[in-house]
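Notes from the 1:1 (GR / supervisor)

We went over the backlog. Supervisor wanted to see one worked example end to end before approving the batch request, so GR pasted a single chain during the call. The sequence is below; no edits were made to it. Supervisor asked that the structure be written out right there so they could see what the output format looks like.
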Amino acid sequence: MNHDRYDDAYIAAILNEAKTIAMVGASANINRPSYFAMKYLIGKGFRVIPVNPVLAGQQILGQKVVASLAEINEPVDMVDIFRNSEAALGIVREAIALKQKLGLKVVWMQLSVRNDVAAAEAEAQGLKVVMNRCPKIEYGRLSGEIGWAGVNAGMVSSKRPLLGAAGVQNHIIRPRST
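Structure output shown during the call:
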């Protein structure tokens, strides 16, 4: 797959199908991107499991932090990597080793995180891969919410946005299944 550009349908399908995300590199610091990405995704109905060995046993946004992917004992659809590009390969290899146990389907590397070797290994194991993107930003762009901040989403449509249960300030890509 060409990881320089992704079709909107590919990203939307991942975000629509994922229910549980393991966020590797989650931070309790409210000024860190992982914190507000986690907060946004929880607000959209995702279950987010923070993974950070330094904070293991503590809580971030009411979610118990685990030290590694191996400590997770529930299904995880997506691993979201908030670590640098060099660290991504080890994380992806751990995710591949736990693919069956977790039911893993997607490896997502955050903005500025790109590791083509890791992507190739994940895809060879049947995992979908996204690199150098943020699920929070992509969700906001595809739902139309990112336009509230004056950001050009690159999409022009006459369709009304789908609204979440919270109303007009809560757009969704499509109704989430439970």
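Supervisor's comment: The chain has one domain: 8-142.
Batch request approved.
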